[in-house]
Amino acid sequence: DKTEALLDLQNLVKRYGGLTATDRLNLTINNGEIHAIIGPNGAGKTTLIHQISGSIAPNEGTIVFGGRDITSLSMHERVAQGLARSYQITNIFKSYSVLDNLALAVQARTGSSMRFWKQAIAERAIFDEAHVIGKRVGLAKRIKTIAGSLAHGEQRQLEVGLALATRPKMLLLDEPMAGMGPEESARLIPLIESLRSEIAVLLIEHDMDAVFQMADRISVLVAGRIIAAGTPDEIRNNIEVKKAYLGDE
Ligand code: ATP
């Protein structure tokens, strides 16, 4: 259904010298869906996410987001359009509390629109929202904790919170489970799932169990091309995918 499409990649090409890392790629992500991209090392997953977030430019093709051609917009302009990439929006201030980090991120979004509010009212609104986001990402008990002393998994939760502070329509997550133990993953997975239908998530992840658990749809990228796309069940049973990728896991 075309009306549901939030992100639409059309004939995207990215070359590094003689190597074509993204090869006439077409992909549609719908509003509110959790969409995972899987593929072997070097398939072009990171290159693709960079082009969507705007940190690198494609050689050819068009990126449409929310019905608007964003191909030539800067990263910051894309964030303002509702496209957030967790760790690139704001880096965590390690010597500030979780709450202060979230408040700074909320203020970065609302700053100019609150300029004429009374200082105390604006501050209250910002910290109220920071509290809500902290709770949402499972950090209510750690809200006063200095961010630098959070466990690795909790820092990832905070990064998601910082991205949520931009009020995104879509969140790009590049290997969110990397370096996490099973307990930390077990906390992050329901957090990502809780975004479903409200915020679209485009996820690159090597943890296949997590991918097949969370994703509404999975696209399989091999040598810069999507060779298959479908529900987790469809991908699991796809012979081409087994041959090209899952077989050698
Ligand atoms: P991985 O899972 O190992 O991170 P990936 O699927 O994310 O891999 P990319 O990192 O996007 O793959 O790389 C795709 C191809 O492009 C690889 O062959 C890689 O060597 C090449 N490549 C990536 N970045 C550059 C660059 N800056 N200059 C030259 N070649 C690059």
Automatic annotation (TrEMBL):
Domain of life of the organism encoding this protein: Bacteria
Domain ABC transporter: 7-248
Pfam families referenced in this protein's UniProt entry, alphabetically: ABC_tran, BCA_ABC_TP_C
Cross-referenced SUPFAM superfamilies: P-loop containing nucleoside triphosphate hydrolases (SSF52540)
Coiled coil stretches, renumbered: none
Keyword field contains Metal-binding: no
Keywords from the UniProt entry: ATP-binding, Cell membrane, Membrane, Nucleotide-binding, Transport
Keyword Cytoplasm applies: no
InterPro entries: AAA+_ATPase, ABC_AA/LPS_Transport, ABC_transporter-like_ATP-bd, BCA_ABC_TP_C, P-loop_NTPase
SMART domains named among the record's database cross-references: AAA
GO molecular function ontology, one term from the record: ATP binding
Protein name per UniProt: ABC transporter ATP-binding protein
